[in-house]
Amino acid sequence: MKPRISYSIVFLSIIFLGILSRKISFIPLCIGDFLYAVMIYFLVRIFFPFKNAFLIALLSLLICYGIEFLQLYQGEWMIELRKTLFGRYVLGQGFLWSDIVAYTFGIFSAFIVERFTLNFLNRKSV
């Protein structure tokens, strides 16, 4: 299967799991943030399927951290944007250090899982 298709399937699956995690009350909110970071990793992967995984992880972390730190900005237009469905899901509501930790673990986990699965698949195809 082509890499972009594989990454797109994983990306859409993560979105589904993320939405589901917000609907089930006993799942901690940090799981949604973790999945958000994993989703960003695979979104970046869709655009750069053949780049080094470490570079993808670094770029994904920068995107997640950038969005989180952007939550410190409280301009009127930004507050209005955050009231929309898009703004709430993509930009978030308020800065939390716990989100930074969840993003870090999410990106690290996606990186490790991808490295493990790629190594496994590459050994199988030889």
TrEMBL record:
Which UniProt keywords are listed?
Answer: Membrane, Transmembrane, Transmembrane helix
Q: What InterPro entries would the database entry show?
A: DUF2809
Q: Where are the transmembrane segments?
A: 5-20, 26-48, 55-74, 94-113
As given in the record, the signal peptide range reads none
- Which Pfam families does the protein's record reference? DUF2809 (PF10990)
This protein's superkingdom?
Bacteria
Name-wise, this protein is: DUF2809 domain-containing protein
**Source organism:** Flavobacterium quisquiliarum
